[in-house]
Design a protein that fits this description.
Elements lengths: L8 E5 L7 H10 L1 E7 L5 H18 L4 E5 L14 E4 L4 E5 L9 E3 L5 H4 L5 E4 L4 E9 L2 E8 L1 E4 L4 E2 L12 H12 L4 E4 L5 H13 L5 E6 L2 H5 L1 H7 L2 E5 H7 L5 H15 L3 E4 L14 H13 L3 E4 L1 H4 L4 H18 L4 H11 L11 H13 L6 E5 L4 H7 L6 E6 L2 H6 L6 E5 L5 H10 L8 E6 L11 E6 L1
Parallel strand pairs: 1-2, 1-16, 2-3, 3-12, 5-6, 12-13, 13-14, 14-15, 15-16, 17-18, 17-20, 18-19
Antiparallel strand pairs: 4-10, 5-9, 7-8, 7-11, 8-9, 20-21
Helix pairs in contact: 1-2, 1-12, 5-7, 7-9, 10-12, 14-15
């Protein structure tokens, strides 16, 4: 068996361009770790077929692939436009309306009935990921009369952002809850909550999942200013974080985004929670065979910042080269990881010991201490693998945040636990019948991952009094 060439996880969105057995299998071979299904598009019948296709492809190739179901949330969108698009020109007047119409250059339908209550004269409205800007001139019942400040081509169903909206919107909708039930029924591994504003949104989803008998990873998408302000609480409540730079870069000053990305990744690393960097990472590959130099640098910088995963959206959902895009992402990751500063893990350890926020945990747990001891051992001894039997995946994730150069081989008896580890940097999960040392060694020897003379580090839980969980490390030569 050969492990992947890169430790950064690659999340690829499945859509019309990639919805076939051959393409999905090729994407898995190229380096896809997580298949994302955007629940905002398509119906449940289509989602069910996609899930089945991913599972069968993963099983056929004998490679673990997690499934992320991305909830639509309250995304305010443009309605149907005549001929699919319209060109808005600077200084023209255009009316955004909640009336049931087909749009043209004078009137644009909005698919959110409360939209006129959200805005007032002087507000700036952004369309199509911020590429088009309007200023509100007047609000008249169902109509919002605007002046075009920055023009461009507007397509049907593009998003609308109002950074200064004065109406609180519940991040978790009735439709979201219906889709969560569907995800539970079909064994989806993780749920992405769109437009999270506070920890309450995460807690609401977690309680609903528990009430319905589900057990899934909950990922909070950071794409609103409220989420940034409440980030520490959200980080504590969620299992993972997604920095969704598309809406976030519209809702707040775009020049602040690079530094904010670094800060959020930094906090997630210290907390030991997987963090995903998303949106427009290799967007030019939607149409072109190669990415721009700036895109390659963007992906590399996210990896150097400490992201666990990088995400592809339109590139693999509707792009011309879904497999090539995944392969390119893998090449960038492999090259960048080799350059990572050898002192990176030591700095993370120091940051963790100092505490990461006023609200976050300052005192370490036994597992925290074990994770730090492992990093110290890795810096002193030539160790080939970190072997981690796990019930919940927590120990593997706590080690993963230090971004060691060695693979973390995680062994779980629960297939769901194993797949959720596909979000964490440098963790390769195995499903086993038992997590004993003998079983683990027999497996990795059988797969030719180790040879006689290799040194490995094994974490384990030794019953001592009331201690439960990982509390011991053992270093030995195979």
């Amino acid at each position: 068996m050969r492990l992947p060439s890169h430790k950064t996880k690659i999340i690829a969105t499945i859509g019309p361009a990639s919805l076939s057995r051959s393409t999905i299998e090729a994407m898995i071979k190229a380096g896809m770790s997580v298949a994302r299904i955007n629940f905002a598009h398509g119906d449940e019948e289509q989602h069910e077929k996609t899930i089945e296709l991913i599972r069968k492809s993963s099983e056929r190739l004998k490679r673990p692939v997690a499934i992320l179901g991305d909830l639509p949330g309250v995304k305010i969108r443009v309605g149907e436009i005549q001929n699919g698009s319209v060109v808005l020109r600077r200084w023209q007047t255009v009316t955004l309306t909640t009336r049931d119409i087909v749009g043209n250059e004078a009137e644009i339908p909005v698919q959110f009935k409360e939209f006129p209550k959200m805005v007032s004269k002087g507000d700036i409205i952004y369309l199509s990921d911020g590429f088009i800007a309007l200023r509100v001139e007047d609000v008249r019942g169902t109509d919002v009369v605007c002046k075009v400040l920055v023009g461009g081509t507007l397509f049907s169903h593009k998003g609308i952002n109002v950074p200064n909206a004065r109406m609180a919107i519940d991040a978790v909708t009735k439709r979201d809850l219906e889709l969560i039930e569907f995800a539970i029924e079909h064994g989806v591994d993780a749920i992405g909550i769109s437009f999270v504003g506070s920890a309450y949104d995460v807690i609401k989803v977690r309680r609903f999942v528990e009430e319905k008998g589900g057990d899934m990873f909950i990922i909070a998408k950071i794409e609103r200013p409220d989420a940034v302000r409440n980030f520490d609480d959200i980080l504590c409540a969620a299992d993972g974080i997604m920095i969704a730079r598309g809406d976030l870069g519209v809702e707040m000053p775009i020049e602040k985004l690079p530094v904010l990305q670094k800060k959020l990744i930094h906090k997630a690393n210290i907390a030991g929670k997987p963090v995903i960097t998303a949106t427009q990472m290799l967007e030019s590959m939607t149409e072109e065979k190669l990415p721009t130099r700036a895109e390659v640098t963007d992906v590399a910088n996210a990896i150097l910042d400490g992201t666990d995963a990088v995400m592809l959206s339109e590139e693999t959902a509707v792009g011309k080269y879904p497999v090539d895009t995944v392969r390119m992402m893998a090449k960038i990751a492999k090259t960048t990881e080799a350059y990572r500063d050898s002192q990176w893990s030591t700095r993370v350890m120091e940051w963790k010991m100092k505490g990461w926020s006023e609200k976050g945990p300052k005192k370490g747990t036994i597992k925290d201490t074990i994770a730090r001891s492992i990093i110290e051992a890795l810096n002193s001894i030539d160790i080939k693998y970190i072997l981690t039997p796990t019930r919940t995946g927590e120990t593997a994730r706590l080690i993963s945040r230090f971004k060691p150069k060695q693979w973390i081989l995680a062994f779980a008896t629960d297939e769901r636990v194993a797949r959720r580890l596909m979000f964490s940097y440098g963790v390769y999960p195995f499903v086993v019948n038992e997590t004993t040392e003998e079983e683990i060694l027999m497996l990795i020897k059988g797969l030719a991952l180790v040879r006689d003379g290799d040194t490995v580090l094994l974490t384990k839980g030794t019953p001592i009094g009331k201690t439960v969980g990982t509390n011991t490390i053992r270093i030995f030569t195979v």
